[in-house]
Specification:
The complex is a heterodimer of chains A (about 325) and B (about 350). Chain A has about 325 residues and is of the alpha/beta class. Chain A is about 50% helix and about 10% strand. Chain A is built from twelve helices and eight strands. In chain A, strands 1, 2, 3, 4, 5, 6, 7 and 8 form an eight-stranded mixed beta sheet that branches. Chain A is globular. Among the domains of chain B are: about 5-115, no CATH class; about 215-335, no CATH class. Residues about 1-15 of chain B have low confidence and may be disordered. The chains are: A alpha/beta (about 325), B mainly alpha (about 350). At the A-B interface, strand 8 and helix 12 of A face helix 1, helix 2, helix 3 and helix 4 of B.
Chain lengths: ~325, ~350
Amino acid sequence: MKTKIGLVLAGGGALGAYQAGVAKYLAEISFQPHIIAGTSIGALNGAVLASNKDFKQSSNLLWHLWDEVGNANVIRLNSTSLVLLVSYLTQITIPTFRNWYLGILKHLNYEYKNSVFDPKPVEQFLRKAVKFDDLKNGIDLWVAVFPSMKLPFLRYYLAQLAIDVLRAKAGQEAHWLRVQDAKDEEQAYNILLASAAIPLAFPEREINGISYVDGAIADNVPLGALAKEGCTHAIIVHLGNGEIWNRNDFPNQAIIEIRAKESFNKSGIPLFGDAHCRLDFSLENIRKLRECGYRDAEEMLTPILHAYSVENNYKSSLTELSSSTRLLLEDQL
Amino acid sequence: MYLFPEDMASVIHEVPIISDKLLIDLVNGIQVNKELVQFRANQGFLSKLLDTVLGNSGTRQNLIDANFTAISESIKEYIYRILHDLTISNTAIAITQKKLIETRDTLRSHQREIDSLNDLYSELNSRLNAYEQRVKNLESQVYRLEVIQNIDRIITAWESKRTYQRFHPILQLVFLIFELCDFCIIQYECKTGSVELRQYSIDRLVKSSDFLPDFPVSVIDIYNTLNVKQNKDAEFQYQLAYSLLEIRSSPITRYAKQPYLFMLGTTLELNQILPSSAKVAFEKLNQILPSSAKVAFEIYKRNLSDKFFLTVDRRQFIETLFREVIDDRMYLINGGMR
């Protein structure tokens, strides 16, 4: 059986900086994946790593790009986000309010946006960081996206999100898309941005007539995409503490999970604390997360490497013993 | 493309994937469970409550259990594999021990063969040495016989009057001793270290030297006979003998141990240098001119020593002469002239 090694990057917003630290350590121990999969921020990180077949170079680039993310304030609230949030609540209670509200926005020269964060800086940053040609010729990259059910009569995005979540719970699976299969540059970026299109936070993306949102709704760890491609070994980088993900669902793969030892949610408050740490793109937090990622990867992989070394010595000695015994048996006077 | 550093990458390819998975499930499974357990321990009240409400708590527990089961399975597989490998090791050790015993037996057998070969070698060696000794003995006997033949040939030639016949008999005897020593005895003694042929030669000479009296007589009397010069030819022979036997010009260390040869050489010299008119002159003075031999004896006695037998029989005379000659030759061979 041919060895095929995969790298799976889970989604988790700003926690994605943690994966840059992990990638740096992996590059230092000469790790080189044959295939990469990612969801949400993991897909964007994956795109950077997949753009160069030399993992050392790409991991180095990723490390520095996260500095830029922290400095450039790439993730910022829409100017209409607060108004939008209010509008959600109003639309639900006053059905005629929508038309009146849109008229006012138009009059005030505000473009209507259906997301809390402005997607343009992210998109521009992505286009600058990842060149389509490099990606096309790079390592195979699979991303998980979730097909959003767009009902024409349903204009309430919170409700649409709720339906999507329910569908995911009911068994609707995420779609795995290979970025290199995109028909053009536009579609490739759309696929990547679709995977990161957190409902409400970023707008959904339409690919081949299907509206896609963040794959994390149904599959935050898209190892399935790699298993389907014949992956034999995989390193999974989770973004979150106590992640519920069962490695035993993949009996044919040798899986190394890298999980954070420190708690990301410093406040300890559920939901709010979790959301806050996923949206904290400050340079200080990014640097801290990267260091954590590097340290955790080292701590988790060192015992495995050691075990390999012991296994290797054990195997060698046994092979040597067997061959010398065979020689003894075959050597007749 | 490698998962691990280059040295580890080769290992992955050597170890089957199932073994790879076992190893990773075991080590990483424990790490994951540790993280899950740690997470649960660190959860706050609200978080715990929310997880319980959402069912995450139970799911997480199930995950820990599943991982634990997988780890246990891995350990079980590992133990089986180790036991299987242990069987291989034990079998290998048993085979090695068997081979060691065989080798030990073979070595012992070889040792015995070597010992017997050594014995045989020693036996052959001693036999060879014995044969070699016998050959050497035979060679030395053959050589001895050759030397005896030479001695006999020299003496027979003299007995048959083929050699030294123009010299005075005493001088013939001396020259004969010289020839025997120089061409037979010295070489034989140097080669074999044996002095046995001296006696043989002396016996032969004693037997053939009838011109010497068998009873004890003074050496001076014997040498007094050298005064007789019958003819001109004898005069030449005398001159020749005198030249050959002149000894006083030699270092004193040499002739100090040769009283007979000294007396002989000096007698010949005195006979040569004292004209007959000297005798007449002595007679006119009513004095008797002492014989050259007597004078030679006196010179030796005064200057060197008188501790030698002056009165000897035939055998003693010949033995002494023989010893003086051969000792002188040995002295010369051993660097006495340097």
